[in-house]
Amino acid sequence: MGLQRRSFLKLLGATGLTLAIGETTHASSPNIEEDAEFNGILYDSTRCVGCRTCEYECATAHQLPEPSDKIAAVRKTDETCNTVVNTFQTEKGEVYVKRQCMHCNEPACAAACLTKAMHKTKSGPVTWDGDKCMGCRYCMVSCPFDSPKFEYHSANPKIQKCDMCAERMKTEKSPACVFNCPNDALKYGKRRDLIKEARRRIYEKPELYVDHIYGEHEAGGTGWLYLSPVPFEQLGMNTSLQQSSYPELTKGFLYSVPSVFVLVPTLLLGIHQATKNNHLNQEEEDEK
Amino acid sequence: MKNNTQTLNLPNDQSTWRFLLSEMKPRGKFLTPFNIISIPIILLGLGLIIIRFIKGIGSITNLTQDTPWGLWIGFDVVTGVAFAGGAYVITFMVYILNLKNYHSIVRVTVLNGFLAYVFYAGALLLDLGRPWHVINPVIGNSFGTSSVLFLVAWHFLLYMVAELIEFSPAIAEWLGAKRARKILSGMTLAAVIFGITLSTLHQSGLGALFLMAKGKIHPLWYSEFIPIMFFVSSTFAGLSMVIFEGSISHKVFSDQISEKNHHAQNGIIHKLSKICAGAMFAYFFLQLLVFIHEQHWGLLTTGMGYWYLLEMIGFVLIPMILFIISYRTFNITLTRVAAVMTMIGVILNRLNVAVIGFKWEMAIRYVPSWMEFIVTLAVIFTEIWIFRWVITRMPVLRDSPSWVNKNE
Question: CB contact, 8 Å: A112 with chain B?
Fold first, then answer.
């Protein structure tokens, strides 16, 4: 509930529009579905064979150009492709890693967005709404995984990133990449269940995995969870991320806004009253 | 200067329009060096802006997926707003502390601040990918209230209104609207208090924007205290701008300024140098505390470390000392040198946080394209054109018309 209280206070402070109060409280009330849980995807890199089927299926599902056959050393997602599978040479041989938006539990991009175009849906995916986005790219500045990508060469640019097939999920049971993975490297489900499943796999084959589920705590927890045979820094994953969520970083500042709005004007008015007759003294001094 | 402005007493609409039309016409010499330089750049900038709206932002900027914010945000918006901070500092001194000595520079400073917000926040529109949605956070049902940028956007908007109210008596005097002037000048104190509060929050808010970029900004510039740093440095950034702009205005528009105010100017600059030095001392001390607290000694011997030392010593500590020396020796020229150095320091600081220190480890760094520079210059020149137009027509530097009650 902290988030709603903060939003409410800030709205009040920032706009001073008392009309908005009713609307905000109203918006926060239909929160009865407390048992709604985030969905996520578990990626097991020991099962991934690097076939890149997910890349092709993702491009088809999102009407993006077909991925190129030429594979650079380490590729990044960009505005034309929402996911890439990279190959890393490690002490345990070749390891493949799929990358895409991580769908954080408390996404920095959604907290950064001033129009709520970036939005964490109740079921888990972080989606982008083109009718709201104004293209400021603050989501890109804020995202610790650099997931949102911007179409710089378009007059009507969009933000591109994995949306966990939010549209497709209305008719299908799982995202395109999960559905088409030939080797069961991807598993879709409730995030809580996926963590249990990941723990079970580590417990049953401790020699196969490092004892770490990437995404369980990183950036306050993410929708995508990773299992790996080698430490994650060897797979180009950022392991220096903070364990708490990124929106926490601006919380203190935003909390201070209402108090500044009450205290500073009062203080200023007080000083003004106290110094009101200063110029009279000054004139007296001038006369001396 | 112009008698018709003073006798015009809100007559029928037709002559008001005629008066406005006559005021639109350019005055003075046309082929000045400033015009010769600025006109081609403004036209070129306009051309580039058209290309940008047809082919996308990437067609004229070097922005990448890794550096989504470049010169237009880092310099135009983040630095430009810091320099506009003079307005809230000077209105604080004049209307809140009642230091009437500074009254002669209030209007020009507020005008400067107002235009800075209009143009630099306006430059933001060029950087928005989907600018037609810019009203979304203002109207409609998409209030992103958890966003620092939402706060900053609203504050820009409200602060522009506050500054317009603060400046509006000058417009009323220009139009000869006596009644309107009385009402508008009655709103000044409220607008000032509101404006200072807004400034406190959005000057620091511009810094708070970068709090979530933890790990992406070089640790020498990133700390949880960025908002406080941005706020404290906006005071002396704004005052340095006042000194700089005042020194130029008093040369260029010397025909506008009364003998009395002309003499007062040097006294004002002299006193401002002391205030700058004090604010810079506080800022430098804060930076030092943060540096010691974060224990980044090892980073000092890296390239970015030398760059940090150059900013902190070369463009904060040294100008601060110069301000102190110039205050003690009544050396106005030295004050101006210190003001320019301070401004360079603020530009460096804002760019270091927003652009240079952002993703500093990348193999391919963002360097602004020449076209980004041209558009930035075009924005600045257009602002100066409008500034000049207002100065030569409204009682900004010159005294108010005789019908204004002097005791207000």
Answer: yes
